[in-house]
């Protein structure tokens, strides 16, 4: 797992949080509220944003709280973990999501 990729993910997550006008503490509190647990702290959000950890089990809640498509966060996390080689975003990724399953365009 590349440290650069983890740091990229952290910066991406920090940008999403800042775009939502939330502090790390506010994000942690909101994630606790939607998940029904009180185990997440601002320190853990900071670890994510520094690239120290990837928030695997928290991705669905991060997507919900920040209003980001879950698939987008999952692709970014997969890239950060080194599970995919291609970039997590871009026109090809977005276009591929618009093609219905089984459509002949999806073969190209």
Care to describe what's here?
With 108 residues, this protein is an all-alpha fold. Helix content is 61%, strand content 0%. Helix 1 (3-19) packs across helix 3 (42-50) and helix 2 (24-35) crosses helix 4 (59-66). It is globular, with a radius of gyration of 15 Å.
List the helices and strands and how they pair.
Layout (H helix, E strand, L loop, with lengths): L2 H17 L4 H12 L6 H9 L8 H8 L3 H12 L9 H8 L10
Helix pairs in contact: 1-3, 1-5, 2-3, 2-4
Sum this structure up briefly.
The chain is mostly helical and 108 residues long.
Proportion of strand residues: under 5%
Q: Would you report the number of β strands?
A: 0
Structural class: mainly alpha
Indicate the overall shape.
globular
- The proportion of residues forming helix, as a percent range, comes to 55-70%
Largest sheet: none
Q: Overall mean pLDDT score?
A: 85
- SSE pattern: HHHHHH
Number of continuous helical runs: 6
Low-confidence stretches: 91-95
Oligomerization category of the chains in this entry: single chain
The first-to-last residue Cα distance is: 29 Å
Radius of gyration: 15 Å
Pick out its properties.
globular; mainly alpha; 108 residues; 61% helix; single chain
């Amino acid at each position: 797992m590349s440290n650069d990729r983890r740091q990229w993910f952290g910066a991406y997550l920090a940008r999403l949080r800042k775009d939502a006008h939330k502090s790390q503490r506010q994000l942690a509190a909101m994630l606790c509220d939607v998940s029904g647990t009180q185990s997440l702290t601002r320190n853990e959000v900071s670890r994510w944003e520094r690239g120290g950890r990837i928030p695997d089990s928290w991705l669905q809640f991060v997507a919900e709280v920040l209003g980001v498509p879950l698939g987008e966060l999952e692709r970014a996390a997969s890239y950060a973990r080194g599970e995919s080689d291609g970039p997590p975003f871009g026109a090809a990724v977005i276009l591929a999501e618009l093609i219905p399953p089984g459509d002949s365009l999806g073969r190209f």
